[in-house]
Every structure is written in structure tokens, then in C-alpha cells.
What we know:
Blueprint (H helix, E strand, L loop, with lengths): L5 E7 L6 H9 L6 E8 L5 H11 L3 E6 L4 H11 L4 E4 L5 E2 L3 H12 L3 E9 L5 E4 L8 H7 L11 E4 L1 H5 L12 H10 L5 E12 H4 L8 H19 L4 H17 L5 H7 L3 E8 L6 E7 L4 H18 L4
Parallel strand pairs: 1-2, 1-4, 2-3, 6-9
Antiparallel strand pairs: 4-8, 5-9, 6-7, 6-8, 10-11
Helix pairs in contact: 7-9, 9-10
Amino acid sequence: xxxxxISVIVAVYQAEAYLHRCIDSLLAQxxxxxxxxLIDDGSPDHSGEICDxxxxxxxRIRVFHKPNEGVSATRxxxxxxxxxxxTIHADPDDWVEPTMLEExxxxxxxxxxxxxxxxxxxxxxxxKQIYQRQxxxxxxxxxxxxxxxxxxxxxxxxxxVRRVCYNKYNVSFPTAINYKEDLCFFVQLLMHPIKIxxxxxxxxxxxxxxxxxSISDSNPKEMLKVQLAYIDFIEQLLKAEYPECxxxxxxxxxxxxxxxxxxxxxxxxxxxxxxxYLGCKNSIxxxxxxxxxxxxxxxxxxxxxxxxxxxxxxxxxxxxx
Length: 321
């Protein structure tokens, strides 16, 4: 069999309501030399059967069924079975534009890139689409690593990656972590001098109204363990060369968890005794009280300005409501 140029990986779990849209958009690509790996992660619904149906009608689709292990282990399972020169991922509840693979591959070959970053869309429930620009300030691998903890999204669905990089740099998805596992992978990769390109185009539609509640619906105590495992993993990777990124990772999680009321502040205080509770403030976009938690690391004013900007954006997005 001729080696496909691209392996598209879809980790499938309980996605029967949206899986057809995702796979149909992948099969509609203008690029032709690619494969689609559908990995059924022990899904309890009919997702596995849908995958099998598509495999019967398209020779480019390969389906694997495995016991449930979580998204990180499933992504790594797919990488171990991929044949493509490059890899990219898609979540089963999202969808893509038809020229995505063609344009990303053309960019990668033209610039001999190990990784191509592109922009993406956020699809809102009210049918609004928000264009998310993902241009790094520099294509230097160290700079891009820093900006993954700032303005760049850590997802693996807007990044085409040369598959040999996995073995060359001994990087993999951390199978014990199912929170920000894609960011953990890219942090490992960007610690090495890979060649990066940026394509100023958006192809991927991140369907936010499907995805946004998946984390906060988790058991709070389990969520706490997952986040602590993520921080521990990042600390082990970056403590020698990038300690400032560890601080940014901790601050980001504290603020996110506090804003979404995932766990009581007292629980977080036990994990991070260096944080301060600043009280409650009305969220003008949600009409409810939220807790603001920051690190005593000198980032207080930066985070406060960031939160003000976010609230203003939400205010205007909601037409002043």
C-alpha cells in the first residue's frame, strides 16, 4: 500500500449525535492521499457502529475498537497505528472545511516544516462564528512554547505534525492525563528545535456549545486530581528551562476553576497555599457571582486586566446584555 501523506485521527467516545457531520467533512476533502483513523474508545452509545458503517463505504477509513482508556491514551494508540507522513487530529463533535488537508500539506512541503499551525473558528450556539487567529510572534520553537501558555491554543486539531517527530524526539501523549493532554504533547515537542510554519487561514470549526461543559461536568474531586497530575507533568518537563511557563499554567488553572466554580476555593487553597482569594464579583456576562483566584507571583495586575477585557468582550458579544 502507498503511504498516505496525512493521517487524520479521530478519538471517538459517546459522539453519535455529531459523528456523521465530522466524518462527512473529512471525506469531503479536496486532498486525496490521506487516511482517517477512527478510534472507538469503548463508547457506550452507537458511535462504534457508525464508525464501522463508514469503513464499509470508504477504503481510506480504518476503524479500531478498544476498551475505554480516555482521550490521551486513545490519541497515542492512533499515532502508533498511523501510516501518514503527517498527522492531524479532529474531535468527533467538530467539523472541517474541505480544503484543510490540501492547504496544510502544501504549506508543510513548501517550507519543509515539521509543524504547521493555522487559525480556527469557534462555532457558537447562536450560529455565530468567531475567527481565532493563531499566529505566533516568532516561529522559534522556544517562543511558540511560551505562547502556548499565553495567547495560542494548545489543541492538536489546528496543527499538522510530521509523524517522524514522535520517535525522533521521543514525544507522546501522556496516557495518564486526560486534561490538556494535547498541550502536554506540544510542550514536549517544542522543547526541540523543530521547524515551524504558520498558515493564516482557518479550516477547523471548534463547536463550543458541544464541548464547553465537558470539563466542568466532571466530579470535582476527580477534576482536582486530574489538574494536579497535569501541573506535576508540566513541572517535571519545564522546571529546568521554563519555570515561568509553570507559573502561567498554575495561574490559568486557578482562574479557570474559580470562574467556573468547579471546586470550592478551600479545596484549591489546600493544593496551592500561595494563592489569594480576592472575593466575589458580579460577572456582567453571566449575571452571577464568580471567584477570582490569582497567584502571588507578580501576575496579579496582568490577570486582572485580562479578566476585565474578557468580561467586556462578553458584554459586547451579548449586545450589551
